[in-house]
Design goal:
single chain, Rossmann fold, six-stranded parallel beta sheet, three-stranded antiparallel beta sheet, 12 helices
C-alpha cells in the first residue's frame, strides 16, 4: 500500500461509490496499512473497498454498505492499537470477517493478561466467550479448530492464577481411552501425558514464559492429568480446562463435570465435528451441552467457521468440510 494520496489499487474493485474519512493517529494508520500495505489489501479484498492513508486518518471508497463494513473493521483495529495491542494479519482477517457479517461488538469482557500484555478478543464470538468465562462457573466453548477456544480458556486460567483468584490450574484431556493404557508407555505420568497435551503447554509457555511455567508446575500450581486420573477427586479453588472434550465419553464427561468443588470453575472446549471415538453417539460433549445449556451457572458459547483466526486457509478448509457434511444430511 502507498501512503499519501495514492490509492492502493486505483480503478479496481470498490473504486466507484462514495468516500468516508476516518480520523486516526499515526500508529493507528500504520496498523491499518500494515507492512507493505498487506493489512489494507486484506480489508480491500474482503470488503470490496479501496483504502488510502493520506495522513491524519484512513480514507475508504466504495458503496455505502461496503464503507460501513470497512469502518467497523478499521475501528476494531484502531481500538486494539489504542489499548496497546499489536495488530497482525490474523487480527485484520478477524476484523474483516466480523465486519462482513455486520456484527457490532457490544461486549467488553475483562481481558486476560499474559506476559506479552492483554489478550484481547479478535471476534465477536471470542468477546462473548471471554465474558462468559468471567461470569459463569461452567462454560462450554464449542466450534471448529482455530477459533481460539482453548487458547482463551488457558489465558483466562493463567490470569486467575496470577491474581491469586485460584490456587491451581488443572488441564485435562481424553488423550487415551482408559488410564491403564498409559502403563504401556515409558516414563512417569508427565512423560506419558505430555505428548497429548502439547497444544496446552504451548499456550501456557506463550502466555507465561517457560521458566515461570516450570516454577508453577513444580510447586503443584499447574497440574496435568488425563480424565481417567480425576476420578474420585474433588477439585476445589481450581480452574479446570477440559480440552478436546468431544472425545470424552458420556460417562467420562459426567465424571469430570462432577469434580467441581468449592471455589472451582471449569471451561470445556471441543469440536463435535472431530470425534475420534468408535461410536460417535458416545461423545459426551454434545450430550452435556444439550443437557446442561439451561442450567443456572452454565454458559454455552458457539463458534463457526467465520470465527477462525488461524491461517486464512483454515477457514476455507473448515467451510469445505461443513459443506460436505451438510450435503450428506
Amino acid at each position: 500500500m502507498k501512503t499519501g494520496a495514492d490509492l492502493v489499487r486505483p480503478g479496481g474493485r470498490g473504486a466507484r461509490g462514495g468516500e468516508d474519512f476516518i480520523p486516526l493517529d499515526d500508529a493507528q494508520c500504520r496498523a491499518v496499512a500494515g507492512p507493505s500495505g498487506r493489512h489494507a489489501a486484506l480489508i480491500e479484498d474482503g470488503l470490496n473497498v479501496l483504502v488510502e492513508t493520506p495522513g491524519g486518518g484512513v480514507r475508504v471508497r466504495g458503496d455505502a454498505p461496503a464503507r460501513a463494513s470497512a469502518r467497523r473493521a478499521v475501528d476494531r483495529l484502531a481500538e486494539r492499537v489504542a489499548t496497546g495491542l499489536l495488530v497482525g494479519e490474523s487480527d485484520v482477517r478477524a476484523a474483516v470477517s466480523e465486519a462482513r457479517i455486520g456484527a457490532v461488538t457490544g461486549v467488553r469482557p475483562a481481558m486476560p493478561v499474559g506476559r506479552k500484555g492483554l489478550v484481547a478478543p479478535k471476534t465477536e464470538a471470542q468477546a462473548r466467550y471471554l465474558e462468559a468465562l468471567s461470569t459463569y462457573d461452567l462454560v462450554f466453548g464449542v466450534g471448529p479448530a482455530g477459533t481460539g477456544k482453548t487458547f482463551l480458556a488457558v489465558a483466562h486460567g493463567v490470569s486467575l492464577l496470577a491474581k491469586g483468584a485460584i490456587e491451581r490450574l488443572i488441564v485435562t484431556r481424553p488423550a487415551v481411552e482408559a488410564g491403564e493404557r498409559l502403563g504401556f508407555l515409558p516414563g512417569d505420568l508427565k512423560d506419558k501425558v505430555d505428548p497429548y497435551l502439547a497444544p496446552i503447554w504451548e499456550a501456557l509457555s506463550d502466555l507465561m514464559g517457560r521458566d515461570a511455567l516450570e516454577r508453577r508446575r513444580d510447586k503443584g500450581e499447574i497440574e496435568v492429568a488425563p480424565i481417567a486420573f480425576l476420578r474420585g477427586r474433588t477439585l476445589s479453588h481450581a480452574y479446570i480446562i477440559v480440552d478436546e472434550a468431544q472425545n470424552a465419553t458420556r460417562l467420562q464427561m459426567k465424571m469430570v463435570l462432577t469434580r467441581l468443588g468449592d471455589g472451582a470453575r471449569m471451561a470445556v472446549t471441543g469440536d463435535p465435528s472431530q470425534i475420534d471415538l468408535p461410536n460417535l453417539r458416545d461423545s459426551g460433549l454434545s450430550h452435556a451441552v444439550g443437557l446442561l445449556a439451561d442450567v443456572e451457572g452454565v454458559a454455552v458459547r458457539r463458534f463457526v467457521s467465520s470465527d477462525v483466526v488461524r491461517h486464512p486457509l483454515v477457514e476455507r478448509i473448515v467451510r469445505a468440510y461443513e459443506a460436505e457434511a451438510e450435503a450428506r444430511t
